[in-house]
Amino acid sequence: MRTEGHLRAVFRESGFRRLLAVRLTSQVADGFFQAGLAGTLLFNPNNQTTAMAVAAGFALLVVPYSVLGPYVGVFLDRWSRRNILFKANLVRAALVVPTALLIGFGADLWLYATGALLIIAVNRFILAGLSAAQPHVVTRENLVTANSIGPTLGTAAYTIGIGSAAGIRLLIGDTSADYGTISMIAIVGYLCAAFIARASFGVETLGPDASERHADRSIVAEIGRTTRGMVDGVRHLVDRRGAAYLMIVQGIYRFLYGVLTIATLQLFRVYFEAGDHSEKAIGGLAAVFVAGSIGGLIGALITPRLTRAFGPRMWVLVVLCGVGADIIVFGSPFLQILLIVATLVLNIGSQSLKIVLDTSIQIACDDEFRGRVFSFNDTAFNVCWVLGQLAGALVLPDNGKSLAVIVAIALGYLLLAGGYALASRRHTPYDRPSWTTTQ
What we know:
Elements: H1 2-12, H2 14-42, H3 51-76, H4 81-104, H5 109-133, H6 143-172, H7 176-200, H8 219-238, H9 241-271, H10 278-310, H11 312-331, H12 336-364, H13 367-395, H14 403-423, H15 432-436
Helix pairs in contact: 2-3, 2-4, 2-5, 2-6, 2-7, 3-5, 3-8, 3-13, 4-5, 4-7, 8-13, 9-10, 9-12, 9-13, 9-14, 10-11, 10-12, 11-12, 11-14
């Protein structure tokens, strides 16, 4: 009843409803644009897309978001957030036009990739601005509920955009022009988001207020300050060995996960369907996506109970050994249904490891450094995944099938378990003794 009361209270806030409308229209548009981009990269029969091109496409989607993340606050704390939401969405709408035309005319990857890079980079301002504005539209006691509802519904809107784009693709065809048309639909959502923000809020309504604003400091000085803060956060982490070792484990896990991502994409795109049946390939990859989502949910549900039962260190070791066995048993036969099961288990492990690491950072790191450590961790999480994809594109055949690579990845997870078992004997994930002695 308490949760239901918070939900009702949040939705009674008109400011929250208007801000949520900005988020939902913007993220539906994101779904359309990124579906068009990914479609022409992965499934357009007019393109002979290589594994390296696929890896480069993922890098475009992930790296700008990750690297820019820590620096966005420099601008959000000095410029009107209402104006950022308005103008950034207008900029994205304008950038979609040439980018979608380049996709539609079948231009070289690197030409339309430049526009996509800018659009996705601007997206970081939108999402961060929405989060920073949230405390200005709901009361403090309802903030946790609002922070949960907004991103959850935003993700749902993004998924709806992707699903709607897939449905439109089946109706209109499978050429570069069709994917360009799908991307162009995003303009409507971006313009709606921009004008909802402008019509709903005053210039100062969403902040920053006087206590948040840092206009007295130059932008260059603030960027330098943010960089130094990240470095200080890493130095702080080094003295918290339990969290530091686990972050290294997660980085290697994500690197190997990236290799498997490229292998799976190429297996479903090329090997299983010989590149001729994009509908079947899309259906198979959709099943992989659903299995991965379910795996993440299972990991989130079981990890709190299992870490209490066995301890976080032992659970991490079980996860790493289980994933190594999973890759060998379900990955080596190269059967579609078994690969879907392998993805489920792999994502249980990924989510479990992330939860243990997040908890370790929260316990081990001082509050003044915690945000910087999490920013570094988020960047490393995504960059390691992209590096793994690039490595996979180099070592895998174009159809994704390589027993040697599968065995090497499985051994990699098992060796990672052995290395972590040795390193964590004195520095467990929730390693209070190691950090209290350094104070």
